[in-house]
Amino acid sequence: MICTSIQNKELAEIQELLQTLEMAEIRLDRCALEDEDIDTLFSESDVPLVATCRLSEEPAAPQILERAIQAGAKYVDLEMEAPAAVGRRIREACSEYGTVLIRSYHNFEETPSREVLLSLLDRARSFGGEVVKIVTTAHSQADCDTVLSLYDAVEPGTLVAFCMGEEGRQSRLEALKLGAPYTYACVTPGDATASGQWTTEEMRAAVYGDFRFVASPQLPMPSSKSFAQRAIVAASLAFGTSHLQGYSPCGDNESAIAACRALGATISVEGNTIVIQGTGASPACLKLDEIHTGESGFLTRFLIPLVAVISPDRVRVSGEKTLLERPLSDAHDIMAAYGVRLYPEGNKNVNEERKADCYLPLKVAGPLIPGRADISGKGGSQLISGLLAALPLAEGKSTVYVHDPRSIPYLFITVDVLKKFGIRMSSEMEGDDEFLETQDWNLCTGLNFHIKGGQRYQAADFAIEADWSSAAPFLTAGAIFGDVEVTGLDTTSLQADISILDILMQAGASMSQLDEPTGSIHIKRAPLSPFEADLNNCPDLFPVVAVLAAFCPGESRIRGVQRLRHKETDRASAICGMLEKMGVPVSVDDDEMTITGMGLTQRLATGALLKGGSYSSHADHRMVMALKVASLGASSPIVIDDEACVAKSFPHFNELFERL
User: Fold this and answer.
1) Residue 508 — left, alpha, or beta (φ > 0 → left; ψ -120 to 50 → alpha)?
2) Where in the chain is the domain with CATH 3.20.20.70?
3) CB 405, CB 444: distance < 8 Å
4) What is the pLDDT of residue 136?
5) What is d(CA 547, CA 626) in angstroms, rounded to the nearest whole number?
6) Class of the 468-657 domain?
7) Which of 74, 133, 332, 648 is catalytic?
8) Nearest CA to 229 among 274, 277, 283?
9) In a 3-state reduction of DSSP, which class is residue 166?
């Protein structure tokens, strides 16, 4: 990125400049800013800011830098010469407030030897520098070569090294090509902080050329189909009339409506509100021969336990398209634990070696018998969610113990929705000491659900949450390629895909929120860094997070590969194939995918954008979304063979994406 140095300005002048800059260094030792101005500047700006205050020019530098850190500075630059006590003080403040610490060395006279510079680099790291800045004065090209050779000794994105002076001018651009997270420029030649500094416009022209960055405010997100499908089914089982506001149609939601009409519910859609007259379901209350679940894996697994309790006869469950080739993992064992038998009609559409798995179409033979069972969660949460919805209707107490749980947030979405319709149950989570301390779902080893039988669903009126999985591609596009604002999202949501915020923040994106808890999320491009993420509880994020990793310099590691094998496609294989074709190194070791990325600025400076061409979506809506985000950073158009499948979850995705 291009970091513009700002000095000798007052607050209003700085704020005006920031409207046109992608990143800025604020020379607090040279700008006329009061304490309140510092608070305002660093707390309100979405532009990534570096707070700099030289001790040699401002005795109160430690206090000024601390104030900037507390106000929200993304970076703070502390020179190597700072006393050890000051270094510890600033380092502790950075750790507390999440500010990136830059330790910097400047030599305004000469360029020391490579050995000396390497020693300084090691010292800066030992002094807490997450990013090290080494700037010397060049008197020859050899001096520039010495400084630029330092990039061979560091991880990408952790070093900013170049030379001052006219001899060093080109090194400022070469630094970006070698992996510097940013380089410095000035607004006008008269604002230069050192000789040889480019103006921001000169650097933009040299690095970006005619590349188009995205800028899109106020992108409304559709309703969460995770909430919508659960609520549609629950309302259809309830006594009375329910009103679900904020509804957005999509293929899976429409399948839920059609299936619930087959259950006997009366459903109409009035604008963005669904009105549902429920059936008042009870055990063995419905004569039902067949129910069709479209292409929705969740709807299929959710309804299997329910039809087992509300229908006295065997019910044929059918689906279509990719769903017919997706195994219902552990379905036989889980349903048998509560007395239900599944009878697949045949597996003629699947590979020979997978015939032992359970596929649609199949018949469900109840009744669902209440009781206690210990079941595996390795295959996912969807069938277990169906049990949680069905067992309250059975005439007797039940306990569901889930070992090795996956997609835990989705189970609690189910509990939350059922609660709105009058269903009550209690739950406990199990884990080791680390889990008890952190409450990290990925560390949970078991779940217990205690369910009273003989309950009945009651009608409810409420608004369906907006969808975090739909927002993830847009937020990721903003983090890599510019500036995006999405609206309507609840930051207190139980949705697992809200994890995209943590991942983007870990990667270094600049983010802010308006009107908490439901309002706008504003995300802006910033220097990115590699990250680690466990997506076992949110596998739908994997494709777009993989694209994010392709633009983070260095190795990012993403866990949860095994959860991808039986999505709309073998999503793990599809992601690897996509990245390899784009020229992004990727490997898989058991459950972990490692992606070696390169920052957007370095890709632009070196001509290493992703490779365009023809790509397959594998009939997977999440792959379409990931490919569209990747297309923003490709050297030529990316042509997707099937974009229509995106209607499964987000029919208006492409239309909204065109607004970026």
Assistant:
1) left
2) 2-210
3) yes
4) 98
5) 7
6) alpha beta
7) 133
8) 274
9) helix
Q: Is the peptide bond before 156 cis (omega within 30 degrees of 0)?
A: no
Percent of the chain with pLDDT over 90: 88
State which amino acid sits at residue 17: L
Tokens representing residue 270 in the block: 């009035």
Question: Cβ distance 452 to 424 under 8 Å?
Answer: yes
Q: How many whole angstroms separate alpha carbon 149 and alpha carbon 135?
A: 13
How many secondary structure helices (H) and strands (E) does the chain include? 22, 30
Enter the tokens of residue 204. Answer: 């933009």
Residue with tokens 């532009």: 47
Per-residue pLDDT of 316-361, as tens digits, reads: 999 999 899 888 888 999 999 999 999 998 654 444 444 456 899 9
CB count, 10 Å around CB of 56? 10
Give the tens place of pLDDT for each residue, 3-57. 999 999 999 999 999 999 999 999 999 998 999 999 999 999 999 999 999 988 8
Distance CA(282)–CA(285), nearest Å, equals 6
* Closest C-alpha among 281, 274, 257 to residue 423: 281
pLDDT tens per residue across span 560-577: 998 887 665 789 999 999
DSSP string, 322-333: GGGGS--TTHHH
367-408 pLDDT tens trace: 999 999 999 998 889 999 999 999 999 999 999 999 999 889
Q: Distance between CA 396 and CA 334 in Å, rounded?
A: 18
Q: Which amino acid is at 218?
A: Q
Q: Is 211 helix (H, G, I), strand (E, B) or coil?
A: coil
Residues of the chain within CATH 3.65.10.10 domain(s) are 225-463, 468-657
Please give, one letter per residue, the 3-state secondary structure of 91-130.
HHHHHHHCCEEEEEEEECCCCCCHHHHHHHHHHHHHCCCC
Can you tell me which residue has the tokens 């519910």?
265
Structure tokens, 112: 């020391």
The CATH number assigned to the domain with range 2-210 reads: 3.20.20.70
Catalytic (active site) residue 106:
yes
Architecture (CATH level 2) of domain 225-463: Alpha-beta prism (3.65)
67 vs 58: CA distance, rounded Å: 14
Amino acid at 346: G
618 is known as an active-site residue: no
- The rounded percent of the chain whose pLDDT value lies above 70 is 97
Q: Helix %, strand %, coil % for the chain, to 5?
A: 40, 25, 35
CA 621 to chain centre: 16
The full 3-state SS of 526-594, as one line of letters, equals CCCCCCEEECCCCHHHHHHHHHHHHCCCEEEEEECHHHHCCCCCCHHHHHHHHHHHHCCCEEEECCEEE
Name the amino acid, one letter, at 598.
M
